[in-house]
Every structure is written in structure tokens, then in C-alpha cells.
Design goal:
- This protein is an alpha/beta fold.
- It has two domains: 126 residues; 235 residues, von Willebrand factor, type A domain (Rossmann fold, 3-Layer(aba) Sandwich).
- It is built from 13 helices and 17 strands.
- The strands form five sheets. Strands 8-7-5-12-16-17 form a six-stranded mixed beta sheet, sandwiched between helices.
- α2 runs antiparallel to α3 and α9 runs parallel beside α10.
Length: 433
């Protein structure tokens, strides 16, 4: 009987499942606990990485780029801590935030170390799972810029602005031999111009509805103020404007440096050509032989007005840009002249010496050359201007900083050219600092 029982017991396999289950229970519990703790830690790390990303980005928002490094650090830490505080089973501390500023650029690094609390500490023999990560963000700001507009308002700049206007002026000034310039004289009767009513060419142009180059320059300057206002808002920057004209001696202030671009635009409406007494006479007591354009004096004076530039960062000194508009021909009294006429009277391409001086100070120069119109039927032009006509544009371009030179000829759009040059100056200022 005993033998039969043992035989039945040895042949019965039903208890193997229980035995195998009992033997596998320990590793199953271990693996389940490991998976749960690891999965929870991985989920927390993903959320902390996202929080670090958000923290780094918070320190380089347009508004925060105008804040100090300490303020940016606090903003980043607050963003990270706000997210970490919503996570249960997490031991954490404030992240390490490193803010590095170089000129207009800021680099922010957010590094964190935290610990995920394990639900099964005995499984791995540790109560927490270490978590760490890092995020980085970089941004740059548009520089704050002071613009100094230096606008040539000498008589040669008041030529009719279009071919049609030039033809109209020439056709209506035959007693003068045909003149395309709307020269402004307070005593035109002394010159016997032959204009109806004895008016000067300035008034004649108005009577004939001829628009002059200076009128277009004044209008373009007004439009530029509107463009500058829109651009500074888009770039979250500050642009200040100063407007000067120049002619026979130094500069005349149209608008001193101001951040009120509306005020600057209104002031630009006052830009006008130099009024002289009559031919060869600046005033009734000053016979200056029509030497009405002195570039060196203007540049010397403006160089003394413009401060040394900074990087343009919000908490520093603005950058400085000189914005020059001219037809590029000097006409002044000078003993040092390559081609003197009538004693010390000198007509020549602008001397670029002062351009070099200004650029060496770190001030950018943007140049709009309103091309000096060749007048091959005019004896004066043929004798005194034609010999150096080809050098005028060369000197004007040499005066400009790299990439900041525009040239327009008769019928050219001064408004479009000035705005394009302004946008180039803004972009160049951002890239080179």
C-alpha cells in the first residue's frame, strides 16, 4: 500500500506550478518595483528638463534682455522652481543659473540636480534616484543707436529733382543761358536773371511746379523718422535722431539729438536750401565768390558733437551713426587745393580725411550720394567740375563704412534710398557689435 502511494505521489505534477510561481515571485516583485521607480524618475526628469528649458528661455525674452544678469537669474530660477513644486515625490533645490553677457548677446545656462523618491527603496537598497540636467539659451538684442543726419543744403543741391523738371527750368531760364538750379537769392535783381516778376530761380521753380532735390530730401527725412519709429518698436530698441544741414561754414542745427521722432520729423520739414544775397555774395557785405560748401568744417564740428560710441546695450552707451547726404563737391576758400580758381576758391571732390577720423572712433558712416549732375553744355561745369567728375562718387563711397553706401541719380527716389540705407545701418550695427 505504501508502495502504491509513493508511486502515485511521484507521478503527480500538479504542485509544479505553485513551486515555480513561488520561486519566480521574488524576481517579479523586484522587477516590478524597479520598473515603477525608474518610470517615475524618468517622467520627473522629462518634466524637469522642460522646466529648465523654460527657465533658460525666460532669461532671454525681449523684455528680460533689458534686465540685469541678476534679474535674469532670478526669473529663470522662479520658472524652474514653480514647475518643480508641482511634482510629488521629488527632492529638489534651486537650479544653478549662469548668465554671460558679451556686448549685445546673452548666454544663459540652467543646471539642476534633484532626487526622485523611490516607492520601493528596499528593492535597490536606495531611497532616491538621482536626476540632473542642463539647458542653454542664447539671444541678442538690437542696439540702441544715435543717428546724426548731416544734410548738404548748399545751392548745388537745389537742382530740379527730375529730368522733366530740369528741362522745364532750362527752358524757362534762357536769359541766363539755361539753368537747372533753383538758387535762392534775396537780391535777384542784381543778377538780371530775366525771370518773370524779377523773382529768383527758387521762386521760379515754385511757380513752374518744379520739385527740387532739397525738397525731396526734406520729405525723405520726414519719412525716415516714421520708419525709424516703426523699426525701433519692432526691434525693442531706442533710436535718437539729430538733424544738421551744412553749406559754406560748419553746420546748422535743424533738430538736436532727441528720442522724440515725431518732433524730429516735424523739424525736418524746415530743411531748405541756403539763401544767398546774389551771385558771388553770401550777404550784402560778404563777397565769398559762391564758396558755399565746406565739408571739412561741417565734419569737424559734428565730430565734436558726437560722443564716443558704446555697444548699444540697453544698460550701456548707444552706438553712433553719421548719416551723410550730399552731391559730394566742395566749394570753399582754401589755399590747399589741387585745382584752385579765382585765387583761393577751391572746387573739388570731398576730402575724406574727416571720414577716416570719425570711423576710427568706432562711429559708422552711412553715405547717400545724390549724384552731381553732369552739365556738358555749361562752360563752368566743363572747365572746373568735369575734370574730377569721375572722382566724386569714389570719394563718397570711400567715406562710407563698408556696405553703407548708396548712390542715386536724377529721377532717383531719395525716400526709398534713405530708408534702405537706414535699415542697412541698423542691421550692420547689430551684426558688428
Amino acid at each position: 500500500m505504501l508502495r502504491a502511494f509513493m508511486r502515485r505521489l511521484s507521478s503527480d505534477r500538479r504542485g509544479n506550478v505553485t513551486l515555480i510561481f513561488a520561486l519566480s515571485l521574488v524576481p517579479c516583485v523586484f522587477l516590478t518595483g524597479l520598473a515603477l521607480d525608474f518610470g517615475a524618475a524618468a517622467q520627473k526628469r522629462a518634466r524637469l528638463n522642460a522646466a529648465a528649458d523654460a527657465a533658460a528661455l525666460a532669461a532671454v525674452t525681449p523684455a528680460m534682455m533689458n534686465a540685469t544678469a541678476a534679474q535674469a537669474t532670478t526669473a529663470a530660477q522662479n520658472i524652474f522652481m514653480a514647475e518643480a513644486s508641482t511634482m510629488s515625490g521629488l527632492n529638489y533645490s534651486a537650479p544653478t543659473v549662469t548668465v554671460t553677457t558679451s556686448g549685445l548677446s546673452r548666454n544663459v545656462t540652467v543646471s539642476y540636480t534633484a532626487y526622485s523618491v523611490n516607492a520601493f527603496p528596499n528593492v535597490l537598497g536606495q531611497s532616491t534616484w538621482s536626476l540632473n540636467g542642463q539647458s542653454q539659451a542664447t539671444s541678442s538684442t538690437a542696439p540702441n543707436i544715435n543717428f546724426y543726419l548731416l544734410l548738404d543744403n548748399s545751392p548745388s543741391m537745389n537742382i530740379a529733382a527730375t529730368t522733366a523738371g530740369i528741362n522745364t527750368m532750362v527752358a524757362n531760364t534762357q536769359p541766363q543761358g539755361g539753368c537747372a538750379f533753383a538758387c535762392h537769392e534775396s537780391n535777384p535783381s542784381a543778377d538780371g536773371l530775366g525771370n518773370p516778376g524779377g523773382v529768383d530761380n527758387y521762386q521760379l521753380a515754385k511757380q513752374l511746379n518744379v520739385t527740387t532735390r532739397i525738397e525731396n530730401m526734406a520729405s525723405a527725412t520726414q519719412s525716415l523718422m516714421t520708419t525709424a519709429s516703426t523699426t525701433e518698436a519692432a526691434n525693442n530698441a531706442t533710436y535718437k535722431m539729430a538733424i544738421y544741414t551744412f553749406n559754406y561754414s560748419g553746420t546748422s542745427t535743424v533738430q538736436s539729438l532727441t528720442s522724440n521722432l515725431t518732433t524730429a520729423g516735424s523739424a525736418a520739414g524746415n530743411i531748405n536750401v541756403l539763401e544767398v544775397y546774389d551771385n558771388n555774395w553770401l550777404t550784402s557785405t560778404n563777397n565769398n565768390s559762391d564758396t558755399d560748401t565746406d565739408f571739412n568744417s561741417a565734419m569737424s564740428q559734428l565730430n565734436g558733437v558726437m560722443p564716443n560710441p558704446g555697444t548699444g546695450a540697453s544698460n550701456g552707451t548707444p552706438q553712433e551713426v553719421l548719416f551723410l547726404v550730399s552731391d559730394g563737391v566742395d566749394d570753399k576758400n582754401s589755399a590747399a587745393c589741387s585745382q584752385p580758381l579765382n585765387g583761393t576758391r577751391c572746387q573739388q571732390p570731398f576730402d575724406t580725411t574727416w571720414c577716416t577720423t570719425v570711423k576710427n572712433r568706432g562711429i559708422m558712416i552711412a553715405v547717400l550720394y545724390t549724384a552731381y549732375l553732369p552739365l556738358p553744355t555749361n562752360t563752368w561745369y566743363n572747365n572746373w567740375i568735369a575734370p574730377f567728375q569721375s572722382q566724386i562718387a569714389t570719394n563718397m563711397e570711400s567715406c562710407a563704412s563698408p556696405g553703407l553706401y548708396f548712390s542715386i541719380t536724377t529721377d532717383g527716389d531719395i525716400t526709398a534710398a534713405m530708408q534702405a540705407l537706414f535699415q542697412l545701418a541698423v542691421a550692420t550695427a547689430r551684426l558688428t557689435h
